[in-house]
Structures are given as structure tokens and as C-alpha cells.
Amino acid sequence: MDDRARTDARARDEADPLARRRDAFDLPEDLIYLDGNSLGPLTHASRARVGAALNAQWGRGLVGSWNTAGWMDLPDRVGDRIAPLIGAGPGQVVALDTLTLVLAKAVLAALDLRPERSTVLTDVANFHTDRYILDAVATRAGRPIRVRALPREDLAAHLDDTVALVMLTHVDFRTGEMLDLAGVTAQVHAAGALMVWDLAHSTGAVPVDLRGADADFAAGCTYKYLNGGPGAPAFLWVAPRWQGVAANPLPGWLGHARPFAFEPAFTAAPGVRGFVTSTPSILALAALDGALDAFDGVDLAVLRAKSLALSDEAIALVDERLPGQLDLVTPREHARRGSQVSWRHPDAYGIVQALIARGVVGDFRAPDIARFGFAPLFVRHVDVVDFVAHLVAVLEGGEHRDARYALHQAVT
Ligand SMILES: *Cc1c(COP(=O)(O)O)cnc(C)c1O
Questions:
Q1: Is 225 part of the annotated catalytic residue set?
Q2: Separation of alpha carbons 390 and 137, rounded Å
Q3: What number is the average pLDDT over the span 309-322?
Q4: Helix crossing, 381-397 with 2-15: angle to 10°?
């Protein structure tokens, strides 16, 4: 059975237009890495770009590299490379800070644009950091703001004329459920509110069309499917209609129109650049810039088709080989699925750890979810077959109940 499934999978890999993209990554041949949704792997281009930034630019060019190596506008150039992946135009995206901070900026800026409204809606299942920062910035908006975290199916019923903005994550980090970006944005706009999207689990994994959806603000991190490296800078998209209108709540000199005029008052640089606060992290941006090479020339429709094929294959094989043993929490419907598949199991942590011991890397999300990301640039069809074979072996052999897995590590 496995031989037949592997042969078929090998044939799909042969025919895969993205198969050679795996060569861009520094991944061992036999590693099955299904955690690109948490930390994307290192690319050869990142290594080279960081090496150049370290040795030639910082090492030899020293402070002159701010001018000669284009360091000053690296946040904008990297932003412009992310833009096509999220349906944004040039000059609309900038790479900066990290995601939690960028969300704070976007939410405060959006609240200023709806001064007569006092409610913010979010999803009760939203990622914790999104909820923490939302609650915190709401107390600093200069007026009383009520944050309501609701089950996502109840949000529409609460879209009244007090709602200033809605902040949602497009693809759920636990279940992999994908929301209707355009449909939700239209509903929010119909209520006169603004839409802030978190694209952490979308960017580089599923096609996103921010301009088509006519959203207001969006932010995402770049160390997941964009493979920018641990703690890589985040990005911010501001709709063209809000550029020059929305203000950075944390202005700093690197977002000033003339940073080296050392003027006493802040004047924002044009466009989204005004949201930059501090000196860009050049080595981190160099790693991200290199990582983005892997996306050059990739047709997002092809990327999406492969992502869905991989996750379909994983779901079908688990259904067939392990009936009734794992509880699928990811939607089967394509339109509602991101690029990961999650199953619930009381021993999910042990399952993930036993798989890691076998060279299959996924992750665990409390309380009981085993999560596997299918990053289409480097995951092969044969990896899916091998992943499920290992999963069957783990469960049949009771490896997940090993006493070693009773205690959870700090990062799961
Ligand atoms: C990964 C992730 C984050 C991470 O935020 P950082 O500030 O980069 O640590 C935030 N929100 C969501 C939805 C995420 O998936």
C-alpha cells in the first residue's frame, strides 16, 4: 500500500511545476519539515545575502553603507517584494518592527480615523498576542474604547454603528480555517467600520487580494511561510486612501520625511514609510530579502493548487489509514482552508514529539492540537505519504505515550 502510494506521489512530484523550488532551501533530503508555518527554513539566498551584508557592507562599508548599500530604503524595497503576494501595489507595504507592534500601530491609526465610534470587534479565538495588544491599545486611544472578542460566527450580528474597526486573523493559527477576506471586509465596510487584517498564516501560503477586497490595513510576520528567519521583521500594508491620512501613533526619525534634517517636529515621510519608527534591522532585512527570492516568478494560483493538493492528500490518507483516531479540525472545504492541517487528539503533544523523533517536524498547539503546515515551495507529495506512514507507526506502536513526552518543552 505504502509502495503504491509512494510511487504515485513520486509521479506527482515529477510533474510538479514547483518541485525545483525546494533547491532554494537548505533542507536535508530526508527531513519532512511540516512546520514552515511556524518557522520557515533557511534559504541559500538568505545565507548569501546576510553574508554580504555582514562582510562587505557592515565589515568594509561601515557607516557609508547606509548610502552605498541602500540600507535606508531596504524596508521599502523589501515591502515592495512582499506586495505582489498580498495583492498590494508598489509603495503600499513596508517591512518594520515585529507583528504585535505593527498591529498596535495599525489599530491605533485606524481608531483615529473613526473618532466618533467606540467599539472594536475581534475573534475570541484570535491569536493571543493579537488579543493582548488590542486590549492594551484600546486603553490608550485617548477615548473610551470597548473591545469585544466574540465567536467569529457572531461578529456580523454585532456590526452596529458604534464599531470603529474589526481586527481578524485571516487564517486561524490553530485550525487552519480561512475567512472570506473580501466578504468580511465588505460587511465591515457596510457598517461604516474599518477592517484590519492579520495575515500571519496567509502570506506566502495562500493568494491574498487586499486591493480587490478593498481592506484598510493589513499586517503579517515574515518568519512563517516567507522564510525570513527567526524574529524577522513584520510588514504593514496601508490602503492607498489612508496614506498621508492615517498617522503613525509611534512616530520616529526613520519615518520622518527628512530624518537627517533633525527637525524638532515630526513630519511623516510620504506613503507607508511614515509608519517606520526606528533604525531598520539590516541583517534581519537582508535575510528576508534573500528568502523572498524563492517566490520570484511563482504563480500564486499554482502555489495554492499545490497547497490544496498536499493538504487534501494528508486528510484523505489519515481518513483512510487511521479512521476515527484523530479528529480533523481543519475545514475540508477548499475555500475555508489555509495551508495547514490540524487534528485534535488527547495525546497530540506526544504524537508531535514522537514524529519529530522520526524526522517529521510538525508542532503542538495547546490544549490538544497537532498541527502540520504544507508549505508548497518545499514540501513534496512523497513527504505527505511518508508523514502519514510515520503517524500510523507512532499510533500503532504507542510511541506517543512514551513517558518522555509527559512534560512539555518551553516551545511546543
Ligand atoms: C505568529 C503570529 C503572531 C506573532 O507575533 P510576533 O509579534 O511576530 O511575535 C501574531 N499573530 C498571529 C495571528 C500569528 O500567527
A1: no
A2: 45
A3: 98
A4: 150
